[in-house]
Amino acid sequence: MKYCFILFSALVGLLAAGFSVDAQKKKKEAAQKPAGDESAYYKIQSLPIPEGEVLEGGAIEILPGNRIAFGTRRGEIWIIDNAFTDDPKNAKFSRFAHGMHEILGLAYKDEWLYVTQRCDVTRIKDSKGKGRADTFEVVTDGWEINGDYHEYAFGSKFDKEGNLWVVLCLTGSFTSDARYPRASSATASRSDVTIARRKSPNVMSTGGQ
């Protein structure tokens, strides 16, 4: 019994030493990477995009089944299957929608993909199961646009009350009003909260509470 205990203790010691050496090795490898190298902290993989396509990303959303919806400045939405595969070559891109306008927000809820584009918030879905969006419904378009190059609409994810928030870029001056429209997924209604002196916001988020 005594020898069994000694053998068990030795095995535990070897395992602990092994884990310690492995941890020190990983820590050393991370320290050797240049400052600002995200791969020291996050797993980074480059997914090969379809040949001949130009994807200028503006929004991203994770869908059920570990798929990714990817919105572009050119007004397209691509679905990426097998996006989390260990081998990037297994990732599959398919165009889900096109003909939209500078997509800068995607949020998924109740089988609908809510798209914030320059002119409105539209929700879309594939109702026929063919892998393409075939239903488009405008949820809100109350802010209007005039063609100024600096007009952008950035969409949030859904908050805990089921609302989407949209932050708008100003176009005239620093003293213009920036409106923050709210789009409700439950009622497809909207309301405005006006906050002055917001010129070039790029993102909107909610606090931890």
Can you put this structure into words, describing what you see?
The chain has one helix spanning 2-32; strands at residues 57-63, 67-72, 77-81, 92-97, 105-109, 112-116, 121-125, 135-140, 153-155, 163-168, 177-184, 190-196. 15% of the residues lie in helices and 33% in strands. It starts with a helix and ends in a 13-residue tail after the last strand. Mean pLDDT is 75; it is low at 2-16, 184-189 and 191-197. The chain has two domains: 2-39; 55-196, TolB, C-terminal domain (Neuraminidase). The chain is globular. The protein is an alpha+beta fold and 209 residues long. The strands form three sheets. A four-stranded antiparallel sheet has the order 1-2-3-4, with no helix packed on it. Strands 5-6-7-8 form a four-stranded antiparallel sheet, with no helix packed on it. It is built from one helix and twelve strands, in the order H-E-E-E-E-E-E-E-E-E-E-E-E.
